[in-house]
Q: What sequence folds into this?
């Protein structure tokens, strides 16, 4: 049952990109779409940083320091965290390259899809591993991932739709991006299930913390701020902080 639950959580988190793609079926004024994206990104980055600080890092650090000692444990933790930072910086560069060509909307949508597949894949592994260890932690991580997958879905579907005027293709491309997460979860089960230990899970979660914090600060915050909708930025952050505090004190 633990395996099935972990796979289900990863799948639901991944295909939430399709929810963002559904925006092509609604007639939003441009300023309303920007408000939604700003609030969603602000909420998501707050959740991602909060989960990393309150859940992923403390418990994983405690386990690794206990098993490897202070010196070796700290070195390992720093290496893992910085590896996550470096990985997401590389993926952000791919996304930035996609955004440099604003004249070709279809190419922009495809490049966003490919870049997001690359970073959704390890997210699927992380969601599976954390859910396998603690379903409550996995669900909280999945919620954070889902809320940043929704605007990602928008970033894929909108340029493709306006380039092709094809809603089906726009939705399909968001599905391709999101399905990378359950694929990552399945591969984790196939290749890692026999080797899952507290040490391995802790190492992966510290790597993920580096990814999530860097993605939130360097990738998502600038995008949320670029619309100059400060009220919705603070609204999203405020709701995120409330949810993090609720989870921290209640669970």
A:
């Amino acid at each position: 049952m633990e395996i099935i639950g972990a796979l289900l959580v990863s799948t639901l988190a991944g295909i939430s990109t399709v929810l963002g793609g559904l925006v092509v079926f609604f007639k939003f004024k441009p300023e309303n779409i920007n408000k939604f994206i700003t609030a969603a990104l602000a909420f998501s980055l707050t959740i991602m940083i909060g989960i990393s600080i309150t859940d992923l890092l403390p418990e994983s650090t405690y386990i690794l320091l206990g098993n490897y000692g202070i010196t070796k444990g700290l070195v390992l933790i720093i290496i893992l965290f910085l590896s996550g930072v470096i990985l997401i910086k590389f993926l952000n560069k791919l996304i930035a390259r996609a955004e440099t060509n604003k004249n070709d909307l279809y190419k922009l949508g495809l490049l966003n899809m490919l870049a997001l597949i690359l970073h959704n894949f390890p997210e699927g592994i992380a969601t599976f591993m954390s859910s396998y260890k603690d379903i409550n932690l996995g669900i909280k991580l999945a919620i954070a991932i889902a809320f940043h997958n929704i605007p990602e879905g928008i970033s894929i579907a909108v340029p493709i739709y306006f380039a092709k005027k094809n809603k089906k293709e726009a939705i399909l491309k968001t599905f391709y991006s999101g399905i990378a997460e359950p694929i990552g979860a399945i591969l984790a089960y196939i290749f890692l299930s026999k080797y899952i230990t507290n040490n391995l899970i802790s190492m992966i979660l510290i790597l993920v913390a580096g990814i999530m914090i860097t993605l939130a600060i360097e990738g998502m915050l600038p995008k949320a701020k670029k619309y100059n909708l400060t009220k919705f930025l603070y609204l999203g952050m405020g709701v995120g902080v409330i949810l993090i505090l609720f989870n921290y004190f209640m669970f």
Q: What stands out?
A: The chain has ten helices and no strands. The two ends are 22 Å apart (CA to CA).
